[in-house]
From TrEMBL, chain A:
Transmembrane segments: none annotated. It comes from Streptomyces tagetis. This is Glycosyltransferase family 4 protein. Coiled coil: none annotated. One of its GO terms (biological process) is carbohydrate derivative biosynthetic process. Pfam families: Glyco_trans_1_4, Glyco_transf_4. One of its GO terms (molecular function) is hexosyltransferase activity. InterPro entries: Glyco_trans_4-like_N (IPR028098), Glycosyltransferase_grp1 (IPR050194).
TrEMBL record, chain B:
Keywords: Membrane, Transmembrane, Transmembrane helix. This is Secreted protein. The keyword Transmembrane helix applies. The keyword Membrane applies. The chain crosses the membrane at residues 6-24.
Amino acid sequence: MRIGIVCPYSWDVPGGVQFHIRDLAEYFLRLGHEVSVLAPADDDTPLPPYVVSAGRAVPVPYNGSVARLNFGFLSAARVRRWLHEGAFDVIHIHEPTSPSLGLLTCWAAQGPIVATFHTSNPRSRAMIAAYAILQAALEKISARIAVSEYARRTLVEHLGGDAVVIPNGVDVDFFAKAEPRPEWQSDEARGLTGKEAGGTIGFIGRIDEPRKGLPVLMRALPEILAARPGARLLVAGRGDEKEAVASLPAGLRSRVEFLGMVSDEDKARFLRSVDLYVAPNTGGESFGIILVEAMSAGAPVLASDLDAFAQVLDQGEAGELFPNEDAGALAAAAVRLLGDPKRRAGLRERGSAHVRRFDWSTVGADILSVYETVTAGAAAVAADERATGLRARLGLARD
Amino acid sequence: MTATLIWTLAVLVAIGLYLSWTAGRLDRLHARIDAARAALDAQLLRRASVAQELATSGVLDPAASIVLYEAAHGARQAEEEHREVAESELTQALRAVFEEPAQVDAVREAPGGEEATRELAEAVRRVPMARRFHNDAVGAARRLREHRKVRWFRLAGHAPFPLAFEMDDEPPAALVDRAA
């Protein structure tokens, strides 16, 4: 099958959607399909062979943060050329409502189009204003995929129609087989009997983005350290480290270690090493891939009770939940879990069994099922001549 | 005078282009419904065929075989207006037969059973998908067709008003053990 995938966000900047597309493309390539990914990228960024650059993305404020998007005349022309040269059986657009390549492709293409909705933003004012335009473009999508039941609900409420739920994929074995690193493990985990009750707590995410919830964890930390003086907090992610610990009493700051950005390998080893992974995110999550990664690596998970997280954690069966933004409840749960190896072993076991459904072998097969379903009754993808508008309708277009 | 004439003409042309664009949109939606319906038919037929094969293969007990055969046969032979009921009955029969994980394991162990179970699991997973895509397209077309401009100018032409395909397509839990 010839598959075209459209990534709306810049390939230069790592992000959940980009990683999802990369893994998906590589999964299809391994199965012997032909895959081409159209993504915004700087000219000097080294790209994998299957990625086609749609030009430089422009940073614009969108949806509460600065997003790097592609739009305009040149991008539209590049999309059309890509469609024309690719001759795809199916195209898969990610995040079709973001004002970027996804929407442009929707405009320019006809034929079997599959779209994945990643975010579950509340309806923005811009979306209401652009509703008529958006609807005409979204009507062309033959199959919609939502990454969680929660994302599907928002989609149905805001845009009408329906979607199938296929979760994001994770390479479970990559995480399950990683080697723990002794310096990230607690004394207990290494089989040493520490002098004081301890344990290592892991956190991965942007330090300076409050949505990721590090401030909540910082508020809970004094209480955790009071009960377990030997505990350490390991933080992996970009951001200002001094500012992050500013709220902590000076004596406790040494219990927090910053690892900066970590590679994929180190991320897996990190998750294999910690005694407890905490996800205190306060909102804006539609899936929670990091929880799946933590469970794959066998880390017991303690997460805020966002809808998306509760769903990934099987309503608290595969990992523990605490009330969102409640530092006291977070501290109490963390202290209890760190002091209860049996409960952690139970969570580890249930988590490992639960994540199998998020493995690429399952998720990729489901997405391929969607492709096969929509291509069964339809012709291949082509540039939509009607979309060229006036010229085509007046018979002036070149063919 | 000439200016008024030019303006009137310009407005008329603009309205004409807008209506032609809307008709194009509607045409595309109808084509999408046709494609989605063809895909749904293909998946339903595939499911009934696999079910019938399993029913006649002898790996199931005689009672289950009869129930499944009856339902699969009914689904394949149903007239258009009874199709939704017949397909729902096949779904219920499949759920009844494959309710227990032990039954699924027993089929899997039979010669050729691994292959048959995989095909059936795939079929019962794809039917709800295809149906959702079909009904999504139907919903979009209906929303547009109910609009004034479409009704007044009869932009839908003679195309029949699209109908959703309603059926029970909940797959047997033991066969698709995964998150929704």
